[in-house]
Amino acid sequence: MKLRKAHHILYCLILALAFAGCKSKDGTEEPKKMAIVVSTLNNPWFVFLAERAQAKAKELGYESKVFDSQNNTSLETDHFENAMASGYDAILFNPTDADGSIVNVKNATAAGVPVFCMDREVNSNEAATSQILSDSYSGCVAIARYFVETLNKKGKYVEILGMVGDNNTWNRSKGFHSVVDHYPGLKMVAQQSADFDRNKAMEVLESILQAQPDIDAVFCGNDAMAMGAYQALVAAGKADKVKVFGFDGAEDVVNSIKDGKIMATGMQFPEVMAQTAANFADEYFKGKRDFPKKMPVAVELVVKDNIENYAAYGKKE
Q1: What is the C-alpha to C-alpha distance for residues 158 and 124, in angstroms, rounded to an integer?
Q2: Beta bridge partners of 292
Q3: CA quadruple 76, 195, 122, 143: dihedral positive or negative?
Q4: Which of 129, 60, 61, 59 is nearest to 90 (CA)?
Q5: Residue from 94, 81, 100 nearest 121 by CA
Q6: Helix or strand run (H / E) with residue 268
Q7: Is residue 175 a contact partner of residue 137, using CB atoms and an 8 Å limit?
Q8: Other CB atoms closer than 10 Å to residue 72's CB: what's the count?
Q9: What pTM, to 2 d.p., does this model score?
Q10: I want to staple 97 with a disulfide (CB 3.0 to 4.6 A). Which of 30, 74, 165, 275 is the partner?
C-alpha cells in the first residue's frame, strides 16, 4: 500500500514538472486544453452534459476531448492518468462514485490540474477545485409534495433508486421521504436500485409487480428509470393505473408528460452546470483561484400544467 502511494506521489510530481514546462519550441505557451470525463455516455442526459461542456470550451477557445468512464471507476482512473499524461490543463468531471472517485481528483489537483465537478459530487470538500451540483434534495421535496397531492395522501408505491455510490441517489431519496414519510396512508412496498439505467428499471419493476401487483405509483431517481418503469407498466397492462414520477428533465420524459404518460419530473439544468465548469476552468487559466467549493443549481418541478415552459434539459428560450 505504501509503495502504491509513493508511486502516485512520484507520478504527480513528474506530471507537475511536465506541465510547468509546457511550452512550444519557440518558447510560447501551448494552448490550454480541457478534458471532459463523464460517468457514462449510455444516458442521453450525460451525453448532453458532455456536449454542452465541449461546446463551451470551444467557444472559449480551448481544445477539449470527452472521456466515457462507462460507470467504471477503474476506467475513470485510466482516463485521468491519460488526460494528465497528454497535457490536459483542466478536467471537467462527472464522477462515477462519490467515494471511489476522490483519489482521481486528488491526484489531478496534486499535479496542478484543476478539477471542476459537474452534477455529481465527490465526498471531499477539499479535493475538487469546485463542484457545481443540482440541488437534488430540494428538487425532490417539490416532487414529493406533488406526489402526495396527486395520490390524495394514500396508496402503495415503489421507489427505484439510482446508483448506490452516487450521492445524488440518496439526496433525491432523502428529499422525497422528508415529505412523503409524514403521510401514513402512503406505504412504500418496495425500494430497489436500478443504477439509473432504463433497461434495469424495467426489469426491476417487472419483478416487483409479480409480488406487488396493486401499486399506485412509482418514484424513480432519474428519468431513464422512469421510462423503464413506464415500459414495465405498459407490458403489465397497468400504465393507465399507476402514476410514474421521474427526475432529470430528459427529452423523452418531457414529451411523456405532455402526453399524460409520466406525471412529473425535476428539471435539472445540465447546460448551466457544464458552462459554469468550463467558465471556471477558463478563469483558472487566467489566474483566478477563489472558487466556491460547492455551487448549487436549482431544480424546477415540471408537470403537465407548466410543461409548455420547458424543453428537454431546460426551459424554452
Answers
A1: 32
A2: none
A3: positive
A4: 129
A5: 94
A6: none
A7: yes
A8: 16
A9: 0.87
A10: 165
